[in-house]
Design goal:
This protein is mainly α. Helix content is about 80%, strand content about 0%. It contains eight helices and no strands. α1 packs across α2 and α2 packs antiparallel against α4. The protein is globular.
């Protein structure tokens, strides 16, 4: 078993720390998390995919800003997530539960970020 859920939890924890404790907006929290996880996000791994998907789902779900503006701000991260998602052999590295969870996240992000 890999660290998929561990990194989703870590990203969620950081994200809501900034929202709840630092009074960041959802966009600010997302941007800050991307900076915090720069090293991990520089890799094309399940860890980076877990972090990207978690942050983008939270932003897409809760931001009050115009979704088109959000798309522009996070276009590179969205593209990177989809690139990693399409390039990794997910059936070999994720459990069925992890794949279902990730697929739900990806479907939601694609729906919100559709162009």
């Amino acid at each position: 078993m890999n660290e998929f859920f561990e990194y989703k939890f870590l990203a969620m924890e950081f994200f809501y720390k900034y929202v709840c404790e630092e009074n960041f907006t959802y966009l600010q929290a997302g941007e800050r998390c991307l900076v915090d996880f720069t090293l991990i996000l520089s890799e094309n791994t399940v860890k980076s995919m877990a972090i990207y998907s978690t942050i983008l789902v939270q932003i897409a779900r809760y931001t009050r800003e115009n979704i088109r503006e959000v798309q522009k701000l996070f276009e590179n991260e969205y593209k990177k997530l989809i690139e990693i998602y399409n390039s990794l052999p997910l059936d070999d590295i994720l459990s069925e539960n992890e794949r279902e969870y990730l697929n739900d996240d990806i479907d939601f992000i694609k729906y919100k970020f559709k162009k």
